[in-house]
Amino acid sequence: MLPRLNHLTDRWAYIRDHRCLSRMKASCTVRYVSEIDTAAPAETAAPGLPQAPGAGQYPALDLANSAIALPGGQFLDALGTPAGANQWLADHNLAPADAGLQEICAARVRSLREQVRALLAAQVGGHPAPATALAAVNDALTRVPTASPLGWDAVRGMHRTAPHPIDQIVDQALGILAADAADLLTGPDAERLTACPSHPCNRYLLRAGRRHWCSVRCGDRARAARAYARRTQTTAD
């Protein structure tokens, strides 16, 4: 398991030092990260809705919360389009803003999000972790290649193949997010993980003291719902 590292470059340096990447690939990766890691991550929640507690510390938690259910049957998906997924990764210093993600790559990010959500739900509910979710996270953890794969075709014969640059960006981003999810689920903060109980909110957060809502808005909505239920019960009696 990767230790908690506050800086993306530090995480890739750790991977390099532990031989998860070849020396050449690690060197290129660290230079690439240094070029794009120039600003603090921006909030990517719904307009007027701040990040849930803990989402700034754990990008994987923010990934899980990137599809938000809102009152009135509204639904906001920050990863719903390739441009949106590209922007979300860029805001979290996981890809350059002009990476040019296509739908197939955006779908991979959304797929990992659903698997991370399944693991968070299992943790919160005290249920066994779904095998498919574990497999998806482990696949993302191990997908970053240590060297160029060996290929063959009738024209070139044996040759080393290089993945598409955008695929490399997405593989690296998903690997970091998967490692972050693993850190959250196996670390001391796992006990603080909870789901916001304010209907219809579907966000996860880390509890802080007695607070167990993801935002002031959700807390106010939950209190208003309880007050309405009490008034309705009193009228019925």
Automatic annotation (TrEMBL):
Residues 192-231 form the Zinc finger CGNR domain. Coiled coil: none annotated. InterPro entries: ABATE, ABATE_dom_sf, Znf_CGNR. It comes from the Bacteria. PANTHER family: BLL6575 PROTEIN. This is Uncharacterized protein SAML0272. It comes from Streptomyces ambofaciens (strain ATCC 23877 / 3486 / DSM 40053 / JCM 4204 / NBRC 12836 / NRRL B-2516). The lineage of its organism: Bacteria, Bacillati, Actinomycetota, Actinomycetes, Kitasatosporales.
